[in-house]
């Protein structure tokens, strides 16, 4: 792993952790309590930023995968893999915090309403992304199959966003990304964007470390084949 990647990841990670502490202080001591849902609404400041970052991560997977299929540049596959792992991490946070919110707001841990169901499906699609990578003895073919899954999976993200508007749903409607603009009070909006900044920085730190680790891993594997005259793919050299 290069020093530049390591230091960039460390700086982003420290800043992200600092903002995580800030957003928790805001959630517990500063932001006002929502009048309808009460205290449980404060999960919103973790749940929603995690969802946004997960969608961003899977968007990166789709873009990198599409360009990888075109250029066959190993660096793009490594970037897609790193982003996919980060997306799975933040989707897990979404799927854990959602039932905690739902248990109080709806009286049940889980209900098969559209947005929750589609988010769970998104998780399994990208779980399939990792399974497909190792489903064939030909690693290059596995990467290409996974790239297709990564592209198809991202097509579900817009559907998740509009699901509460086009289907009967218990899930609250959007309060930020609306044609009229955000409807949240200033302190709630500030807390929400603090959480978004914190999780974005943590994702970028994870992405850089995971990309650097994958690059080092593949360079090591190709060096072991160097004696057989196998050239290093572009972007794999340390």
Description:
The protein has 238 residues and is an all-alpha fold. It is built from 7 helices and no strands. The chain has helices at residues 3-30, 44-71, 74-105, 114-133, 139-154, 156-166, 186-225. Helix 1 (3-30) packs antiparallel against helix 7 (186-225), helix 2 packs antiparallel against helix 3 and helix 2 runs parallel beside helix 7.
List the helices and strands and how they pair.
Layout lengths: L2 H28 L13 H28 L2 H32 L8 H20 L5 H16 L1 H11 L19 H40 L13
What's the CATH architecture name? Up-down Bundle
Q: Show unreliable segments.
A: none
Termini gap: 7 Å
Helix/sheet category: mainly alpha
Give the percentage of residues in beta strands.
Answer: under 5%
Brief overview:
74% of the residues lie in helices and 0% in strands.
Overview features:
238 residues, Four Helix Bundle (Hemerythrin (Met), subunit A), 7 helices, mainly alpha
């Amino acid at each position: 792993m290069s020093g530049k990647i390591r230091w960039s990841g460390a700086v982003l990670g420290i800043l992200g952790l600092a903002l995580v502490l800030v957003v928790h202080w805001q959630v517990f001591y500063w932001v006002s309590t929502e009048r309808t849902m009460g205290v449980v609404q404060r999960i919103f400041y973790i749940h929603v930023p995690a969802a946004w970052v997960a969608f961003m991560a899977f968007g990166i997977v789709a873009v990198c995968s599409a360009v990888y299929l075109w250029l066959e540049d190993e660096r793009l596959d490594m970037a897609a893999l790193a982003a996919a792992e980060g997306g799975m991490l933040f989707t897990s946070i979404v799927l854990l915090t959602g039932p905690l919110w739902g248990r109080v707001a709806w009286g049940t841990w889980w209900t098969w309403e559209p947005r929750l169901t589609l988010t769970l499906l998104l998780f399994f699609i990208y779980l399939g992304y990792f399974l497909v990578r190792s489903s064939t003895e030909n690693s290059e073919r596995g990467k290409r199959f996974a790239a297709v899954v990564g592209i198809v999976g991202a097509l579900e993200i817009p559907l998740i966003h509009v699901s509460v508007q086009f289907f009967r749903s218990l899930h609250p409607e959007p309060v930020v990304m609306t044609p009229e603009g955000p409807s949240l009070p200033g302190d709630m909006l500030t807390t929400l964007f603090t959480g978004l900044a914190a999780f974005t920085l943590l994702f970028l730190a994870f992405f850089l470390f995971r990309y650097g680790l994958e690059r080092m891993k593949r360079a090591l594997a190709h060096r072991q084949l160097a004696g057989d005259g196998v050239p290093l793919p572009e972007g794999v050299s340390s």
